[in-house]
């Protein structure tokens, strides 16, 4: 239960037995100057610097909710709002104890999601939520975004404590509500489940896993309509033919970003594209980057008044792309025109890409200064939803929860997969960290199922041009090392299957050998409920993923290392004593005497 102790000006979270888990101060900052919120006795009304504040406390899905209403104060710019909770007090572990762990969701596009060891005072920043866990603390603690918001959440850990709140960076022109949620429980996974249940209140109705083929991972921007037709013919002639619903044409079909018309490799109109896909019995889907506009399109060249200004007053750019100002009515009308045209052409799935945090940081000077950055993005996504209708499927590829929850049907939860072991391992950590979202916030999308490797494809060039370099610690994983083997890619397929998320194939099926097609066919039908990463808070990347599938249970066991490892670790979670290999039907004893090859996975019925 969350309470306000106005005599000490503290917000306090207590467990069911009344034990105080933490006490924190509400802080509002103007520039670098922080103001503590002092509350009047017996009320939730307080003052912090120039701002008047009212707090409302409640409960949802077993968690405590906090809504902070800040009254607008002209002439003052609110930099950030946060609850400051010191470490190593009450139930909060020391944040420099090497046994303490924090589940963090990266606050920038390059930051990875996952569980960190808190062994130093170096600051860590995240968004959405933080879960603190220490094996001796008695309770895991969750600090999270409470729901859709006008500004982006921000959580900062350092050697002294935690700030849980929002990066605002604007003058408030109206009273604004900042929603947060808190919880404590012995089991951090149960705490994440409760958090998912709370956010589900704001989500769209849950949909089953979407299945299909997407052009991106194999073709990249080189795709043509002839390629799409060839692939769909191959799919229909294979055992995959009746298993896939969508055919999604990814980046490469457009004239340019901001000029959403088919290019010369897609002769005809959008309607022509959609009809050719529909003629194969599959449903058409389309990739779009709606926020960005190439500077050499008619829109980017002649309507610079519709673009977000940078510090100098000229449009802010990322490479040769500027950002459309979603706060403008004319841009709203343009979004509706684009997407209603795509819908009228026959497209019903829309992959909305490049809504990444690093781009959204540039939205500081939108025309409507009353809106926070998240509210600006939400306004644009709401226009797109209006244009495509409730029956269409919106796949959010990178848009933050604050802006997209309740508008998107599914969401990417990893970075791009490519057929390299570094990508398989990197994405495993991100996927495990977000499995709790599945079926609650949306249907998660783990990115593509890919299997092209020696022995599974006839292709001389399984990947587009890249500079070969070794996969080395600290040097980044992106397309590093040799091409992955079939066994290594089957580790990825096992993750995709256990995620119970969307199942989109990303290979050239026309170039796959029968073995590769058979490996992909084993993913169907997809599971409906995600696995639980049993050792999420004790392993760098969880090794044991347990899923329920009707009346049976499935256990994925992974070896992420470059050497042979015991099948079962003495320090690991409690596991069944044996299982049956789902592929070869052999019985496998789950004990420390058995070993697993390097870079491998087992999928067992237990």
In short:
With 606 residues, the protein is of the alpha+beta class.
Mind explaining what this structure looks like?
The protein has twelve helices and 37 strands. It is of the alpha+beta class and 606 residues long. The chain folds into two domains: 2-198, Immunoglobulin-like (Sandwich), CATH 2.60.40; 211-521, Aldolase class I (TIM Barrel), CATH 3.20.20. The strands form six sheets. It has a 16-stranded antiparallel beta sheet that branches. It has an eight-stranded parallel beta sheet with strand order 28-27-26-25-21-18-17-29. Helix 6 runs parallel beside helix 8 (373-388). It is globular. The two termini are 38 Å apart. The relative contact order is 0.09.
> What structural class do helix, strand and pairing data support?
alpha+beta
Terminal CA distance: 38 Å
Number of domains: 2
Shape: globular
* CATH domain class of the largest domain: Alpha Beta
Beta content comes to 25-35%
Per CATH, the superfamily of the largest domain is Aldolase class I
Proper CATH architecture of the largest domain: Alpha-Beta Barrel
Keywords:
globular, 37 strands, alpha+beta, eight-stranded parallel beta sheet, 12 helices, 16-stranded antiparallel beta sheet, TIM Barrel, 606 residues, 20% helix, Immunoglobulin-like
């Amino acid at each position: 239960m969350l309470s306000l102790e106005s005599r000490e000006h503290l917000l306090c979270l207590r467990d069911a037995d009344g034990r105080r888990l933490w006490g924190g101060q509400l802080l509002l900052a103007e520039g670098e100057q922080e103001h503590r919120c002092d509350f009047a006795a017996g009320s939730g009304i307080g003052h912090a610097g120039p701002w008047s504040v009212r707090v409302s406390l409640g409960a949802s899905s077993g968690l405590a909710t906090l809504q902070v209403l800040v009254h607008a104060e002209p002439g003052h710019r609110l930099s950030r709002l946060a609850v400051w909770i010191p470490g190593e007090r009450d139930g909060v572990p020391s944040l420099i104890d090497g046994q303490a762990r924090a589940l963090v969701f990266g606050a920038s596009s390059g930051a990875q999601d996952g569980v960190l060891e808190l062994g130093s005072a170096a600051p860590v920043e995240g968004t959405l939520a933080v879960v603190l866990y220490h094996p001796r603390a008695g309770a895991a603690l969750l600090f999270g975004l409470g729901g859709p918001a006008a500004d982006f959440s921000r959580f900062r850990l350092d050697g002294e404590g935690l700030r849980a709140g929002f990066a605002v960076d604007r003058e408030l022109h109206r009273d604004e509500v900042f929603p947060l949620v808190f919880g404590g429980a012995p089991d951090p996974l149960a705490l994440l489940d409760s958090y998912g249940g709370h956010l589900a209140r704001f989500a769209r109705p849950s949909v089953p896993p979407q299945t299909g083929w997407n052009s991106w991972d194999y073709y990249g921007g080189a795709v043509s309509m002839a390629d799409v037709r060839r692939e769909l013919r191959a799919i229909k002639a294979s055992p995959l033919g009746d298993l896939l619903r969508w055919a999604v044409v990814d980046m490469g079909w457009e004239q340019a970003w901001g000029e959403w018309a088919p290019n010369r490799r897609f002769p005809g109109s959008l309607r022509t594209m959609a009809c050719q896909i529909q003629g194969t019995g599959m449903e058409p889907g389309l990739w779009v980057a709606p926020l960005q506009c190439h500077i050499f399109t008619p829109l980017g060249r002649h309507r610079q008044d519709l673009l977000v200004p940078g510090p100098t007053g000229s449009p802010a750019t990322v490479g040769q792309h500027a950002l459309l100002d979603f706060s403008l009515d004319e841009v709203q009308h343009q979004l509706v025109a684009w997407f209603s045209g795509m819908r009228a052409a026959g497209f019903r799935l829309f992959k909305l890409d490049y809504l990444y945090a690093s781009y959204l940081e540039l939205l500081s000077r939108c025309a409507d200064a009353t809106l926070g950055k998240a509210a600006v993005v939400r306004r644009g996504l709401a226009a797109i939803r209006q244009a495509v209708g409730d029956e269409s499927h919106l796949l959010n590829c990178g848009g933050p929860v604050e802006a997209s929850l309740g508008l998107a049907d599914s969401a990417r939860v990893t970075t791009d997969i490519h057929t390299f072991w570094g990508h398989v391992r990197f994405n495993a950590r991100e996927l495990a960290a977000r499995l709790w979202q599945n079926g609650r916030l949306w249907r998660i999308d783990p990115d593509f199922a890919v299997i092209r490797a020696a022995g599974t494809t006839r292709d001389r060039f399984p990947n587009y041009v890249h500079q070969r370099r070794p996969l080395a610690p600290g040097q980044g994983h992106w397309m590093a090392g040799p091409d992955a083997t079939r066994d290594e890619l089957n580790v990825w397929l096992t993750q995709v299957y256990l995620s119970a998320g969307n199942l989109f194939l990303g290979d050239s099926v026309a170039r796959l050998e029968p073995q590769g097609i058979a490996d992909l066919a084993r993913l169907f039908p997809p599971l409906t409920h995600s696995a639980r990463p049993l050792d999420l808070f004790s392993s760098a990347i969880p090794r044991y993923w347990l899923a329920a599938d009707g009346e049976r249970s499935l256990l994925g066991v992974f070896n992420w290392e470059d050497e042979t490892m015991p099948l079962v670790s003495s320090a690991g979670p409690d596991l069944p004593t044996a299982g049956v290999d789902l592929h070869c039907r052999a019985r496998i004893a789950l004990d420390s005497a058995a070993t697993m090859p390097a870079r491998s996975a087992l999928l067992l019925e237990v």
